[in-house]
Design goal:
This protein is α+β, with helices and mostly antiparallel strands. The protein has 2 domains: 178 residues, Ribosomal Protein S5, domain 2 (2-Layer Sandwich); 125 residues, Alpha-Beta Plaits. The chain has 9 helices and 12 strands. β6 and β7 form a beta hairpin. α1 runs parallel beside α2, α2 packs across α4 and α8 packs antiparallel against α9. The structure holds (3R)-3-hydroxy-3-methyl-5-(phosphonooxy)pentanoic acid. The site of (3R)-3-hydroxy-3-methyl-5-(phosphonooxy)pentanoic acid has 16 residues, from α4 and α5.
Length: 315
Amino acid sequence: MRERVKVSTPGKLMLLGEHAVVYGRPCLVTAVDQRMKVIGEKVRGSGITINAPDVGIHNFEYKPGDEDVPKGVRFVVAALKNFGWQGGLKITTASEFSSEFGFGSSSAVTVGVLKCLSELSEAKFDNKRLFDLAYKSVLDVQGVGSGFDLAAAIWGGTLGFVTGGKKIEPLKTKKLPLVVGYTGIKADTTTLVKMVSQKREGSRKIVEEMFDRVELLVNEAKVGLEEGNWEQVGGLMNENQKELEMLEVSSIELFRLITAAREAGAWGAKLSGAGGGDCMIALTDNPKGISKAIAKAGGIVINVSSGAEGVRVER
Ligand code: PMV
C-alpha cells in the first residue's frame, strides 16, 4: 500500500454551451495544461492536516464531523467525507493557475483529493466512479453545477458533456488555436447559475428556446472541432456569445475583450464559463495580434494549451 502519492489534474475552459448544459443540453469543454497538484500522505494517528497555501490555508487541522470549516478547504473536506477516509492524513494542494481565473480550481482539487485517497487505499476507482464521487462532493458544497469541469479534470482532452456525466464523449481534435484573456474580475458561478434559474422561471419559453439554439450551435461546433474547421467554430462561438448576452450573463469587461479580439480579426470570441468576469476565449490564426489587442483592451492574456491530459499520478 502506498504511503504517499502525488497527483495532478488539469484546469479547464468551457468552449461552448455554458448555462444551457445545466438544463440538459450538451456543452464542449477542453482541459488546459496548467495543473492542480495534490499530495496525499498517510501519517500516524488519526489527525487530518490540510495545507492549501494558494488559498491561505496553512496546517488546518480537520476534525471529522466539523461542519464549520474555512472556505479554502470545503472541497477537500467534502471529498474526504464522501470517500469515507479513516486515519491520519496530510493533504497539500498547489496550483499552477490562480483560483481567480475560473479554470475550475475547486473541481480540480476535488478530483485530485479523491484520486489520492483511492491510490492510498488501493480502492482504484475507474473514471466514472471518480466522477460520481467528485460530483456528489461538489454538489454538497455549492448545490448547483453540471460537473463539466470535473469531467475535464478526470478525462482531460476535449469533451462533449451532458449534465451529471450522462454523456462524456472524448473528441478527436487537434490543439485549438486559442487565446485566453482574463478580465481581472472573479466571477461567482453559483450566483450566476441561480440568476439564470430565476430568469428561466420567469420566462420559461424564451429561455428554453435560447438553450435549444445553443444546443444546435454546440452540435455543429463539435463537428467543426473534429474537422479542425476553426473558422466555422469561431462563427459558432460568436453566435453562442449573442445568446449569453441575451441571457445577461456577459459583462462590460468581457464585452470589451471580446470586441477587441474580433476587431483584431479573430474567427470568433466569447466568454468562457458562468460569465460576469473570469475569462474570454478567442479562436485565431494570429495569436500575437489578438493577444496584443486583448491586452490593450485591459485584459490579461493567459498562455495555455487545450486538450491537456486528465488526472494522473505523478512519479
Ligand atoms: O464558472 P465556471 O467556469 O465554473 O462555469 C460555469 C458553467 C455553467 O454552465 C454556468 C455551470 C455549470 O456547472 O455547468
